Amino acid sequence: MKKNLYYRTVLHRSNPVKNFFFDLFTAIASWPRLLLEVFIRTNFGERYFSFSSSIIMFVLLAVTPLLISALGSSSYYGGFDPKEFLMGNITWYLFLAGFLYCAFRRRQEVKRLPSVFDFARFSLSSGRIHPLFYTIVINGKRVDSRMIETLFEPLFFFIIGFFFMLFGQIVGILIVVCSIVYSFSYMAAYSVGDNFVMDKIDELICNQELYNAFVDGVDPNNTRGVNYYGRRPADPEARRKVADTFMEEEETVDAM
């Protein structure tokens, strides 16, 4: 597709503040999402899944209850009680053990996948959604991946986390918070994707209606809403020459 310089310079809209928060949220959400995704997804992309990040998360989350307990016990006589600590945090460490085990399995899967450098695999793939989610039916229709990623996957973990919270388990709070971040991060990703596709569609429409709207001055009602702002040369041929400069070829790279 040809680049429409007028569209990209004049008509294209962007919200820097919104984009900043989307980028920030996406960056923050990577760890909470990873903490849950390893349990239900497989075949991650090489650059999407990070086993080193999994190890770091495991260590940080493993020492967090120890630090909290140590700080709390310093104000009481008797000091730190290992047995009481373990019984109070057993579900936390069982969850972390399960996370590390699943992360290791995801790492082994990544090693077995086709090479990214042979154009055989998308390195940023978010993995394969568990087939059971596609069996969900609403109003007689199976849910799509968008609904699964923004609603049903996070809802699955939210329910689990809420169940743990009912029994006073601190791990429930962690899972619930991560599930909420999980949902909003995918909502943000789909919003960015929607806007990117609409940008391409709008640019294509602007290309198709360029001569009708700019050269011939056709009313926007008859050009699918396209209107080129600014003064134009009086001579139609001059307008056509100017319109020709609005577009240029976009460089593309083809896989071997």
Explain what the structure shows.
- Keywords: Membrane, Transmembrane, Transmembrane helix.
- The chain crosses the membrane at residues 48-73, 85-104, 155-182.
- The chain has helices spanning 5-11, 16-40, 51-73, 82-88, 90-112, 145-166, 170-208, 210-215, 236-244; strands spanning 3-4, 137-138, 141-142, 247-248.
- It has 9 helices and 4 strands, in the order βαααααββααααβ.
- β2 (137-138) and β3 (141-142) form a beta hairpin.
- The mean pLDDT is 85.
- The chain is elongated.
- The protein has a domain at 42-128.
- The strands form 2 sheets. A two-stranded antiparallel sheet has the order 1-4. Strands 2-3 form a two-stranded antiparallel ribbon.
- It is 63% helix and 3% strand.
- It is mainly α and 256 residues long.
- The chain starts with a strand and ends in an 8-residue tail after the last strand.
Structural class: mainly alpha
How large, in whole angstroms, is the Cα Rg?
26 Å
Q: Span from first to last CA?
A: 20 Å
Could you tell me the mean pLDDT? Answer: 85
Q: Which H/E pattern describes the elements? A: EHHHHHEEHHHHE
DSSP summary, beta strand count = 4
Strand content: under 5%
* Unreliable runs: none
- The number of helical runs is 9
The biggest sheet, with number of strands, parallel, antiparallel or mixed sense and barrel status, is: 2 strands, antiparallel
Strand order of the largest sheet: 1-4
Instruction: Categorize the overall geometry.
Output: elongated
Question: What portion of residues is helical?
Answer: 55-70%
